[in-house]
Design goal:
- The strands form 4 sheets. The protein has an 8-stranded mixed β-sheet.
- With 267 residues, it is an alpha/beta fold.
- The radius of gyration is 24 Å and the shape is globular.
- It contains 7 helices and 14 strands.
- α4 (110-118) packs parallel to α5.
- Helix content is 28%, strand content 21%.
- The N and C termini lie far apart (54 Å).
- The chain has helices spanning 15-33, 56-68, 85-90, 110-118, 136-145, 217-224, 257-266, and strands at 2-4, 10-12, 39-44, 75-80, 93-97, 122-126, 147-148, 158-160, 165-166, 181-183, 189-190, 195-200, 229-235, 242-245.
- It has a single domain (35-266), classed as Rossmann fold, CATH 3.40.50.
Length: 267
């Protein structure tokens, strides 16, 4: 085979040249068709509360750095606030870590998140991001991760988790005992089908007087009946594996190996 142009230049594709180029062409095809490494995108809200509390950007950066240093074939990045479409669409897993209610980082982004989960991509929601305002985001969280914080049903006291039960699951593999002070939300509103991973029975003393987030007859009855309270779970009822975790109030707790490993495994 020859190729010639107006200059009269001609080059023959010799058998030797074919043998040399064929492997390169094959490698080029493989590289161009190889799937991209999984991409974990942390979407962090603005920090709030006092020093060392709700340090969402710092906590997200710490967890992303741990994933990037893990040796796993993935990349983890942090977006301060909602990312651009290209970054969001490239993510194979999204982690929401922010205040809730009208400061929720995903407020107004429900449809984008629904498309993400329907595509079989992962979603994790941590701490206050589990408490949306009533409306589309509230419905989305219940549908997609199987649970949410609900005013006049759930409570958010600060208490020390002790004698916690870790379920036998891939996410709990390598996780040591978790015994730590945090603002552990419990008595969340759940859909059937969640898989509890981290449970405990809080003391009645963790409740205050009845109020929107401090106590109510339903949670008192649950504790009196000895019903374990779910603090971390996984859900696969929305077409993707999703994860919820009620801790994460104090930034210092990410230095605890068991606490940190449990969440990293869940992502």
């Amino acid at each position: 085979m020859t190729r010639s142009g107006g200059s009269g230049y001609s080059r023959t594709m010799t058998p030797l040249r074919r043998r040399f180029l064929a492997p390169l062409l094959l490698l080029s095809a493989l590289w161009s068709s190889a799937p991209a490494a999984p991409a974990v995108l942390f979407i962090a809200g603005d920090p709030s509360h006092g020093p060392g509390e709700h340090r969402f950007p710092d906590g997200a950066a710490l967890l992303a750095a741990a994933l990037n240093a893990s040796g796993l074939p993935l990349t983890a990045t942090v977006s301060l606030g909602w990312p651009d479409d290209a970054a969001f669409n490239a993510a194979t897993a999204v982690v929401l870590y922010s205040d809730g209610l009208d400061r929720h980082v995903a407020l107004g982004r429900e449809e984008a998140l629904r498309r993400h989960v329907r595509a079989g991509k992962g979603l994790a929601v941590l701490h206050f991001a589990l408490e949306p305002s009533k409306g589309p985001l509230s419905d989305f969280l219940l549908d997609s991760i199987g649970g949410r914080f609900e005013v006049d049903w759930s409570v958010n006291p600060v208490w020390k988790l002790e004698n916690a039960n870790l379920a036998a699951h891939a996410i709990t593999r390598g996780v040591g005992p978790i015994a730590i002070d945090d603002e552990w939300y419990y008595h969340l509103r759940f859909k059937p089908g969640i898989v509890p991973l981290l449970q405990a029975l809080p003391a009645v003393s963790t409740l205050g007087n009845d109020g929107p987030r401090s106590g109510n007859p339903a949670v008192r009855a649950a504790l009196a009946q000895g019903t374990p309270q779910v603090l971390g779970w996984v859900y696969e009822g929305a077409g993707a594996r999703t994860f919820g975790f009620t801790g994460g109030h104090y930034h210092r707790n990410w230095s605890d190996a068991a606490f940190r490993t449990f969440v990293l495994n869940g992502l």
